[in-house]
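batch job 7 of whatever, protein = ABC transporter permease
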Amino acid sequence: MRSKRPPAVALVCLGLFLLCCLFVPRFATIGNIENVLRVASILCIVACGQAIVIILGGIEFSFGASVALASVVTVTVLPTAGPIGGLAAGGAAAIGVGAVNGWLVGRIGLPPVIVTLGTLMMASGTAAWLAGGLPLDAPPSAIFSWPARGRALGIPVSILAAMLACVALHLLLAHGRIGRLWYHVGANPLAAQLAGIDVARVTLLGYLVAGTFCAVGAIILTSRVASGQPALAPNLAFETIAACAIGGLPLSGGRGHVLQVVFGVLTVAMFNNAVVLINLPVAWQLVLLGLAVLASVGLQKDWAALKRRAGRAAP
């Protein structure tokens, strides 16, 4: 379930970093590296939630819509509740979407793909309705901008939050009882049920924790753009899936490690940054990222097949 060896994507990530340093103008500057890490931080936090859902054998398409809804709720509530109250309300909205997903998948037994596509549309529609279809500007506030632009211990808050998110995910998966249950349910839900595991409760809790990771990412992103946008981060869910797939998390569930998430996120972030720096059209960014996902999944499948053949051939 959990591999003790560094994931193969670590070498891919290192190779991409070296190539970008050598051939992409301005990539290796300190300012650009910090910018890559700032952008990667939000993706990393939300990808931690996606990893939990994938380990459970599901998939989450509603993260982008949850972030958009959170941003609109934040700015809508902010005038009466203040910056902290507004950000808390936005985070609660994202957690609420995760709770609904977990209840429908775990308790009702609906397919995760259908459930998260449905909540994607519902959250997007609600965000557009609350905002009237237009972005809502947040009033200037040092407290409101601190999650995205502040520093703690000399480290940007967003990067520090991503580091803490990775630590939290590692503790849940490697040392927490709930993490072991997520692995068991993702590997074989029926066997887990027969073993006495409350599959519905474990699944609900997994989606709820995933929604919490998404809420943290939503708070930081809303703080960065300083507005409530009903179309904010439309590709976020797909980028988290891409990061997990490139990192080597099997979409069949039951396996996964936090390092796979980290290196997958860094690979996607560096790739996107390099595409911008060499002035390729945005459309090419999506095309090339899609090809990278297909290639990584295909290579994982071929590698697994080779290991199975080697195992059968061994005396």
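notes: The first helix runs from residue 9 to 23.
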